[in-house]
Each structure stands twice: as structure tokens, then as C-alpha cells.
Amino acid sequence: MRKVNQKGWLFVLPVLLLVAFNALVPMMTVVNYSVQETFGNNQFFWHGLGWFEQILRSERFHAALGRQFLFTAMILAIEVLLGVIIALSMPRKGFWVPFCLVTMALPMLIPWNVVGAMWNIFTLPDIGLLGYVMNHTLGIPYNMTQDPLAAWITVIVMDVWHWTSLVVLLCYAGLVSIPDAYYQAAKIDGASNWSVFRFIQLPKMKQVLTIAVLLRFMDSFNIYTEPFVLTGGGPGNSTTLLSIDLVKIALGQFDLGPAAAMSLIYFAITLFVSWLFYTLMTRHDVK
Amino acid sequence: MAKITLDKLRHSYMPDPKGPQDYAIKEINLDWQDGGAYALLGPSGCGKSTLLNIISGLLQPSEGRILFDGNDVSALPPDRRNIAQVFQFPVIYDTMTVYDNLAFPLRNRGVDEAKVTARVTEIAEMLEVTEMLRVRAANLSPDNKQKISMGRGLVRDDVNVIMFDEPLTVIDPHLKWKLRSKLKELHQKVGVTMIYVTHDQTEALTFADQVVVMQDGEVVQIGTPVDLFERPAHTFVGHFIGSPGMNVLPAEVKDGAAFFSGQRIALEGAIIPGAGLHQIGVRPEFVSLAATGVPATVRKIMDLGRHAVVEALAGETRINAIVEGTLPGPGEAVHLSFRPDQTRLYRDGWIASEKERAA
Lengths: 287, 359
Known about the structure:
The structure holds two protein chains of two kinds. By secondary structure, chain A is mainly alpha-helical. Chain A has helices at about 10-35, 50-55, 60-90, 95-110, 110-120, 130-135, 150-175, 180-190, 195-220, 225-230, 240-250, 255-280, and strands at about 35-40, 45. Chain A has a two-stranded antiparallel sheet. The radius of gyration of chain A is 23 Å and the shape is globular. Chain B folds into two domains: about 5-230, P-loop containing nucleotide triphosphate hydrolases (Rossmann fold, 3-Layer(aba) Sandwich), CATH 3.40.50.300; about 245-350, CATH 2.40.50.140. Helix content of chain B is about 25%, strand content about 30%. Chain B has nine helices and 22 strands. Chain B has a six-stranded mixed beta sheet with strand order 6-7-8-3-9-10, sandwiched between helices. In chain B, strands 16-20-17-18-19 form a five-stranded antiparallel beta sheet, with no helix packed on it. In chain B, strand 9 and strand 10 form a beta hairpin. The two termini of chain B are about 40 Å apart. The model of chain B has no long low-confidence stretch (mean pLDDT about 85). The interface between A and B is medium-sized, with 16 and 24 residues.
């Protein structure tokens, strides 16, 4: 029998405490709110699962959830594809490597609300560079504050601009770890470029790609600041994603119970989809 | 299968080489006969791998030509040269099964599936991996992975040459021997030209019919393992092959005879006239303790079981002798005698005594 060293727990303890106080304890208060009704004065009444039922049946929630999935699916498809393509076309040796890496990392260094503000100004029809060029130089009507389609395109382009780099850098790290001998062997075996990608590069990128997809899913599914600063959820409710809707309910209408129930449902969906992605993407590794 | 000719081959990794010191390969002219088992032997950094990559087409030589059966292939990419190469670390397509790995080079060349099956089965049989064909290649042990990378070379029946770049580096010592004899056996069965690059003399001497010894980008000697051992053409070969290597003693040449510390040393034959730095070379196997000869003091004795290596000092020069039977003690004064037909003169490193014709 191998003796298990129990000292490990001691080292995990500080992190456990930290997570408990910044995540678990606040979440318990949310659970507390989600099953109670309040009329102010700090008086609470038991409400059971009523709020959960209400949220799950609400059309407003369904609409926000639909928009959320559409947004996440679109940015995932674009960013993963684009990220892999850019990573493949980046030089792996020589003078341009640091230049490419720094350029790629730049968008990720900009804070979320600054990105939102930048794109807001960038797209203003009369003074923003993009807005002006579209409307006055190219003659294409473009006004994000009035046209839902324009608003959607702008939110997606902004996210792609901000976060494709993450996928690129992770994939690039996977690519540079492939020894030259693999490419040489493939050349000698007469492999086509597609085969090299399919049988050498993709398998090496798979693990980092799993991480990239998970990170991008969680981040985009919980996105708040950028679209809030850019469109405020509008025009109308057309870009009101789940988190924006949640903040409206919790802080705008101050409906603590429904907001708490919605948070928990939101959290459960994020957790479930992350688990689903992870299981699907790593299912071949076991054996 | 083909005869491979290297014609005035030179290579430099620098864009603008100035002199011989800038060349990784300094003019090589060489013929590799069809179906031969060759070893390319030399210390790390002597240009073996560079030469290999030039033959396979992964590297374009700065100057010179490569001919396969007289056809110039210098400008062809690796896949059109029809060669195979096994690398230092096993290269395996992780996501494929062993079968698909072996079939890969054939499928890429559009061979029909019935023939692919036949070839893969045949090669798997030879390599004794038949029962692993359905296993994912990623799950194999290093020696089996290396077998599969060899198999990817063998599976093409029209391959011109298979090259091995130190293929046993990551293999456990007790499996090295097995894999090496497997390789030798495969060579006899298939008859493809094989070039085996290594810095390990045992690997080279056991695998190859012909060994090409390289040093500093130059070919120093080509010969059978016996040639290299018995009559090294250069003091480097004498030193590099053999354990311990050949004794190299400073020598003087006067009136057609060689002298070491004042004593005349009998050589294998006449000295080729010329001037330069002279050295006498004799292997420890042919140095014995005798009543007369070069006086020396015993410094160290390494008992290796069946025989012992006696290290003695004659003046400033260290001389190794392989001795069986009674051993002298350290510090003892002895006389060393060299077997004349195995004692040679070298001038500026190259052999300068003539071989006595057998009577």
C-alpha cells in the first residue's frame, strides 16, 4: 500500500479559503435570495421554486438566452477558424516572430470598457472613422444605434478583434512545439499540405484548442462590459445578452428574487455547456 | 533501388562562405553501391547529419550534385527522390493506427488499397508488429514506434535508399541490440541500400558492410570494419575506432627508418618519401610486454576480465597495451614491443607507410 501524504491539503487550504469567500459564500446568498420574496425593509418571505418557474417560462428570458447562444456560436466559429488560420500562417522562426507575437497580444491588453468605448466612437456615423467612411465615403448606410443588424455585426466584429488573438497565441504555442523531424518525415512520406495539417498540426494543437474553446465559450457566454458600453443592449432589446438582461432585472428593476434565480440558471447552463465541450473534445484521449 | 553518387559536394550554412572553415561539408566525392549497408560514422558535429539531409533533399547543397543511378536529382524535393528516412526520435502519426501509419506513404502516392493491404501485412510480418496493427500508434513503446518509422520506409518497394539518423538514441540499451540485428536481417531480406548515421562505433561496425568515417566535414576513410580496425588511413580513424583507440606516438624519420625516443621502430613496410609531422600508430592489441623494446613505467591497470588495459608512460607519451595473463604492478618498469606488421607511420595525420605484400 502506498502511503498517501496528507500534507497536500494544507497547501490547498489558502486557495480554498479565498475561493470560499469570493465565490462560494456570495453564491450562497444568491441561493438564499432565489427562494425568497421581499417587499423591502429587509423582510423576506419563503417563495419556494416560484422564481425559477417564472424565469424558465418567461419569454424575455428565452429571447435573451437565444441571443446569447447565437452570439457565442458565431464568435466561437469565427474566432477558432480565424485563430487557427492566423497561427498557421505566422512565421515560426526569424526576425518577424516577436513582431507578430506583440501585435497579436496588443488587443488583449486593452480593458473591456475601453474596447467598448473605442468601438463606440469608431462607429459613430458622423465623427467615427468607420462610421464616417461607411456613410460618407462608401455611401453604405450604417448606423449601429438604429439598425439591429448593424449593431449585431459591430458587436461580433468587436469581439473577434478583441479575442481572436487568444486562440492564435494558444494554437501558435502548440505549433512551435512540433519538432522539425515531423515535417521532414511528412515530406518524405509524400504527405499533402492538408495531410500535414490533419495528421501532424491539428493533433498537436488539439489540447490547446480545447482550452481556447473553453475559455472563449465561458468568456463570451458571460460577456457584459463591451456590448453594454457599445450598444447598451439596443437598439431596442436586439443586443441584450443574458448578462445585460440580468443586470437590468437585478439593478434596474431591483427584483432580487428573479435575478437570483436567473443567475443560478445562467450559471448552470455555463457549467453544463463547458462540461459538454470538454467531454466531447477529450473523449478520444482516454485509452 | 539505386547507386548513389555524390559529386564534388560542398555545403555551408553561411550565406557567403570565405574559406574551408566555413563549410560544414568540404568537398565530398563518394559512390554508394546499390544494395549496400553503409554506416556514416563520426563524432557529433562532423557533418554526418548534414550529408544525410542533403541526400534526402531536405537540404540543398551549396555546391555539387547528387546522382541516383546517374540521374541528377539535386533539384528534386524529398518526396520525388523516393527515399526514406528514420529520425533520431521516432516520428509517428499519433492519431492513426499502426496500420494507417504504415499505409500512409503508399496512400499518399495513390497506390490502390489491395496492394496497400498486401504490403503493410508483409512489412508488419517482417517487423513482428502484426498483432499491433489495430492499436493507436500513440500508445506504443519507443522501440516499437521506431520500428513503425522504419516500416514506413520499407513499405515502399521502389524506395531508392533508406537512411537512419542515429535511430537508436531513445531506445533502451537491451533493446538496441535486438533492433540492430533486426535491421541487419531486414537489409539482407529486402536488399535496399541503407545508410546508417551514428557516432557509436559498435553500431556502425555491427550494422555496415562499408563504414564511411567523417571528421570536420571530410571523409577520412571508407572501408570494411576490418579495414578500419586493422589499417586506419588516418590517426583520427585509429583513435576514434577501437577501445581504447590506437596509440599515436611522436616519431622522427631518418634514412628511411622511424624512431621513437631514440629507438628504431620496425614498421609494416617502406616509408613513402615526404616531409611533415610524423607519428607512429599502433593499436593496444599489438603492443606487448617484452624483455626488450621501448622502456616505460606502468601508470594504471584496468582489468576488464578477459584481458587488461595497461597504461604505461614512455617519457612523456602515454601508451596503452592490452595484456592477457600475468599483469605488472603500478610503477613497475617494463619494456614494450610493437608487432611490426601492425605498426604504421603517419605523416600529418595520413598514413605514410606502405603495406608489405603478403609473402
